[in-house]
Amino acid sequence: MASLLGKRPDLIYSDSDHCVSLLGNVIISFSLQPPNPSYLKAWTKAMDHLVESTSGPIAIATIIDSRSRPPDETSKRAIRATVSKHAARTCAFVYVVEGQGFAAAAMRSALSLISLTARYPFPQKVFANVPAGTAWLFQRMESVAVTSATSREIGSTVETMRSRVKHLATAV
User: Fold this and answer.
1) Does 73 fall in a domain?
2) Helix or strand or coil: residue 100?
3) How many CA atoms lie less than 13 Å away from 77 in the CB half-sphere?
4) What are phi and psi of 47, to 5 degrees?
5) Within a domain: residue 22?
6) Average pLDDT in the 140-163 region?
7) Which region holds residue 152: left if phi is over 0, alpha if psi is between -120 and 50, else beta?
8) Which of 63-67, 103-107, 124-128 has the lowest mean pLDDT?
9) How far is it, in rounded angstroms, from Cα 21 to Cα 9?
């Protein structure tokens, strides 16, 4: 599989709580808080763009801070609609809920249950840290011969996104 080493991720959206980037065939989002309408609109548009501008399967990586509240029902429906729309092209979806303790574990459990009931035709998994989540995602991408970002490149993109969001959050 070819690497995108040296290729910069395309920053699609950023506010003080969220960031969305595209890296090869992967859409990566980082959130400190639940989705807001602007973020959801940008994320949906980015998913549409990724599917239209790439060939082959895509992968989704969503990184959530454990202090974030769960999304409201409207946001959940919007996310499900977008993921369902592109399910045929998706090879894997990873959630990473960062943090330790009861709140983080409860959120990971809730996402695991939601993933089971969604019955998407692609594998999904929830992790506690970015390295484990991106390694799993990369293995899924390799299994369908997706030429895209490596686990290390995805992790580096997440760190850049985290820094950007935290910088914007302190500037507000």
Assistant:
1) yes
2) coil
3) 4
4) -60, -50
5) yes
6) 78
7) alpha
8) 103-107
9) 6
Which pLDDT score, from 0 to 100, does residue 92 have? 94
Give residue 78's domain range. Answer: 10-171
pLDDT digits (tens, 9 = 90+) for 40-71: 999 999 999 999 998 889 999 999 998 888 88
Distance between CA atoms of residues 64 and 1, nearest Å = 28
How far is it, in rounded angstroms, from Cα 104 to Cα 92?
22
Entry pTM: 0.86
In whole angstroms, what is the distance from residue 50 CA to residue 57 CA? 10
The Cβ-side half-sphere exposure at 163, using a 13 Å CA radius, reads 7
What is the mean predicted confidence (pLDDT) over 144-166?
79
Question: What tokens appear for 19 in the block?
Answer: 């960031």
Length of the chain equals 172
Does residue 46 fall inside a structural domain?
yes
pLDDT at 3: 41
Give, in order, the Cα–Cα distances in Å from 146 to each of 13, 24, 53, 78, 92.
24, 9, 14, 26, 11
Q: Residue 152 domain-assigned?
A: yes
Structure tokens at 93: 């979806």
